[in-house]
Amino acid sequence: MAAPETTGVFATEGEAPLASTGQYAARAEAAVKVYGSGDTAVHALRGVDVGFERGKFTAIMGPSGSGKSTLMHCMAGLDRLTGGETYIGDTAVSTLNDKQLTILRRERVGFIFQAYNLIPTLNVRENVTLPMDLGGGNVDNDWVDEVISTVGLADRVTHRPNELSGGQQQRVAVARALASRPEIVFGDEPTGNLDSVTSAEILDFMSSAVRELEQSIVMVTHDPRSASYADRVLFLADGKIEHELTDPTPDLVYDTIRSLGAS
């Protein structure tokens, strides 16, 4: 893909990079990630080029070791590439120092972990607003209330994680990722620990966030039914994108997985 202009503009040293108004909420160019060296080197990503459009829901699939989680972690600034570049908006992630990278992840990127990563001593509302509280920014209380209500936790705002079911804890994690209105949200198997009914409810909410709130979401999943909620599905194998499917259905995802496995 043609490379848009790259900006790394900061008002003062350490402040967050300016948001982009371009087509992509995030993208990678010639992304390479190698773990180890010599004969034991593992090539997790092999020159991946991909863009994630604003206001779209993308699922990433692939067998274990295909590079799907590595790609997402590098896109989100949780890991560094060996070569190539990743961008949030027009901001080149590799150009950021540690402080700038922390601010970018806090203010422009949302992340939904499979293990929830909630603070046990904080209640629902405090967990949702934690990234904004740490950044010292203003909290839009009306918006936070709307997000918490939308994920079905309006009657649980004073509860702590140990007082919630697994599904409710994941709802808190989703609400936290969306509450700061980030440019893009990444989900690492966000419904992997949930039953089918709760999983469907979480995915419905994520889909509605894309459609109604113009949120951009990228989700790693192994489940064809979960992937079918997305606008498109990327299939990785051996560190490369092997196929792309738009307007997926569970059957189409199953068929694609079978065809790629046979090729």
What's the structural blueprint in terms of helices and strands?
Elements: E1 24-35, E2 42-53, E3 57-61, H1 68-75, E4 83-88, E5 91-92, H2 98-107, E6 109-112, H3 124-135, H4 141-150, H5 166-179, E7 184-188, H6 196-213, E8 217-220, H7 224-227, E9 232-237, E10 240-246, H8 250-262
Parallel strand pairs: 3-8, 3-9, 6-7, 7-8
Antiparallel strand pairs: 1-2, 1-4, 4-5, 9-10
Helix pairs in contact: 3-5, 4-5, 5-6
What's the short version?
By secondary structure, the chain is an alpha/beta fold.
Task: Give a description of the structure.
This protein is α/β, with parallel strands linked by helices and 263 residues long. It has a single domain, classed as P-loop containing nucleotide triphosphate hydrolases (Rossmann fold, 3-Layer(aba) Sandwich), CATH 3.40.50.300. 34% of the residues lie in helices and 24% in strands. The chain has eight helices and ten strands. The protein has helices at 68-75, 98-107, 124-135, 141-150, 166-179, 196-213, 224-227, 250-262; strands spanning 24-35, 42-53, 57-61, 83-88, 91-92, 109-112, 184-188, 217-220, 232-237, 240-246. It has a six-stranded mixed β-sheet, with helices on both faces. The chain has a four-stranded antiparallel β-sheet with strand order 2-1-4-5, with helices on one face. Strand 4 and strand 5 form a beta hairpin. Residues 1-20 have low confidence and may be disordered.
What is the CATH class designation? Alpha Beta
What is the CATH superfamily label? Answer: P-loop containing nucleotide triphosphate hydrolases
Low-confidence stretches: 1-20
- Rg over CA atoms: 18 Å
Which strand order spans the largest sheet, edge to edge or round the barrel?
Answer: 6-7-8-3-9-10
Annotation, overall tally of beta strands: 10
| Individual helix count | 8
Shape: globular
